[in-house]
Amino acid sequence: MAADRLGSRLQAARDMAFVGRAEELAAFRSALYGGGCNVLYVHGPGGIGKSALLRRFACEATMAGRAVSLVDGHTLEPSPAAFEAEAGRVLHDADAVLLVDDVERLQGLEGWLRERFLPRVPVGALVVIAGRCPPDIRWQADPGWAGALEVLPLRDLRADDARALLDSRGVPAESREPLLAFAGGHPLALLLGAAVAVKDGGAGRWTPNQDVVATLLDQLVGELPSAAHRLALEVCAHAHTTTEDLLRAALPDDAAALFQWLRRLPFVQSCGSGLFPHDVVRELLEADLRWRDPEGYAAMHDRIHAHLADKVRTANDADALGAVVALLYLHRGNGASADVHGHRVEGEFQEDVLREEDVGTLLRVATAAEGAAAASCAAFWAERQPEAFRLYRRTETGEPAAFSAWLRLEEPDEEELAADPVVAAAWEHARATTPLRAGEHLAVSRLWISPSYGCNAPVMEVIQWRVIANCLRAERMAWSYIAIRRATDAWTERLRRCGMRDLTERPRLADDPYTLFVHDWRAVPAQAWLDRVNRMLVAGPAGGQGAATAGLAVLSQAEFAEAIRKALRHLWRPDALAASPLTRTRLIAERAGDAPATALADLLRQAVEDLREDPRSVKFHRAVAVTYLQDTPTQEAAAERLGLPFTTYRRHLMAGIERVCTALWHRELYGADTPAYRPG
């Protein structure tokens, strides 16, 4: 009997595993019973369930009394004759149903099918074509096919259907959520993961083993043309979105050709900011490369990280948030930064500048969120620094969700200190610790979130992106302070892991305490901060903890000048130079590669030599060079070598040292790339 055959048991098991696809089944039934088109074209990436859907179509057609033919492009010779031999029945039977699977394997036949074969099919017959790629644009551009063809893009299963699939496979409850987090709604990934989870019996947290990874990569990605194509795909998997210029930064090969290849892959999609792969493909490629070639993974990551960090620094204000999202995406899952896809908040909120007509809304939100005293502070700063404010609206409704302000402060102002206890506390801390130096400023971040959202709302992620953009793009910022009212444990831990420490003292506004999270950007500059987070991604959280304490020394101008004078006297003593506080300043941090003592000695010698470039300083150069660069034993001996009276020599020496101190102080403040300081 047919029911006792193995094929019947296999079909029954497949029927149990088939879930969802209500829209596709509805389109097929409409066409099957004469109310739809003549040709259905189903397309989607590998493993998305095209073959399973065709089998269900075959069952539906058989139950409707229609004769069914199935052509498998994987096994058929790609020629018109071979195709007609398998599918010819549909040319002569108006009730026939033809199902064509793996059409991409029939290279060169798509045009023949469209122009020569399908026009000969009787009107009552139904043809379903399934493949990884969407149909050639000529199908949809041809007015003749407009009413006869329906294209069905096959996507992931809905969340409820994905859970139903796992239930049908008997997956233990403790394995379902991690398996869903990995596979999403991808049917093949769900089925393979379910097989492993059932075999393991739910022991421990489910993760894809290497057999699952290898099998899925083979099914979804397949063989790649070259090592360069593999690397391009791995870059695409690692980055948030991939553009041609990102490929140029990450690859030595032809970025333009590789980008064109990527955009044609069936599991790669495009959006306004570039290309991105299907989530499952992304996770598989990431897991495989990290396991197979950890050094190659780290090298690729570092190239992408450097490129995206530069994008944050150079983007215009409107594009800064997108640049930060792309950079933070590289650190997804490491706990050091916001999980930018955990809340899926991109596009959910829109940021805008504060306009005069928005001030009333700001005051209403601040009052509802934190009371009248907070609203008074917001009004004060909105009048004083309106350019510091940003408004965040929910995209769907236009409803104001939050306001933030990034207050840039250069010196204490009595009116500001009286108006805002939070700003007063920031100034008090800065002055008591390491005060601002000439030309520096501090920044205070304030935010007011509508009570209907709360401090853990997704809009907080968007505000955090703006804060990070401000920190990485700031020039001459000494301190940053992030003020959060009644900070939760989750936000405290997150900011601490980002190198922002919370102050013990809690300023109060009315009766509400505020936590101030502070960072000294002179001690740990933006690049050092990025390097720390970067190491945490590659090496795990333990790999980046040291950077939290490995800060630079922040010296006042007087302390800096005294250290220069002492270092000049010890120029020939490496042990003394190694102990100099100058070895922990920005000056030496910029000279990567040398031992600190060696770098300091070289820097001092070069600064002395630079005095010769100004004709007015040549005599000062001679005094400093003979005294320190030639290791003259005494100042009297130096004056004698120069043939100068001792008082004249001392005057020249002091003037030369002063010029060296001034030039190096300028570099300490502004960086090595700024023009050299020339005294007037």
Structural description of this entry:
- Keywords: ATP-binding, Nucleotide-binding.
- This is ATP-binding protein.
- This protein is of the alpha/beta class.
- The chain has five domains: 2-153, 3-Layer(aba) Sandwich (Rossmann fold), CATH 3.40.50.300; 159-207; 219-329, Orthogonal Bundle (Arc Repressor Mutant, subunit A), CATH 1.10.10; 349-548, Gcn5-related N-acetyltransferase (GNAT) (Aminopeptidase, 3-Layer(aba) Sandwich); 557-670, no CATH class.
Please give a quick description of this structure:
By secondary structure, the chain is of the alpha/beta class.
Helix-strand layout with pairing:
Elements: H1 6-17, H2 22-32, E1 39-43, H3 50-63, E2 68-72, H4 80-87, E3 97-101, H5 110-117, E4 126-131, H6 137-141, E5 149-153, H7 159-168, H8 173-183, H9 187-200, H10 210-220, H11 227-238, H12 244-250, H13 255-263, E6 268-271, E7 274-277, H14 279-292, H15 294-314, H16 320-329, E8 349-353, H17 359-370, H18 372-384, E9 389-394, E10 400-409, H19 414-419, H20 421-432, E11 441-449, H21 459-473, E12 477-485, H22 489-497, E13 501-502, E14 508-509, E15 512-520, H23 526-539, H24 557-569, H25 574-578, H26 586-589, H27 596-610, H28 618-629, H29 635-642, H30 646-670
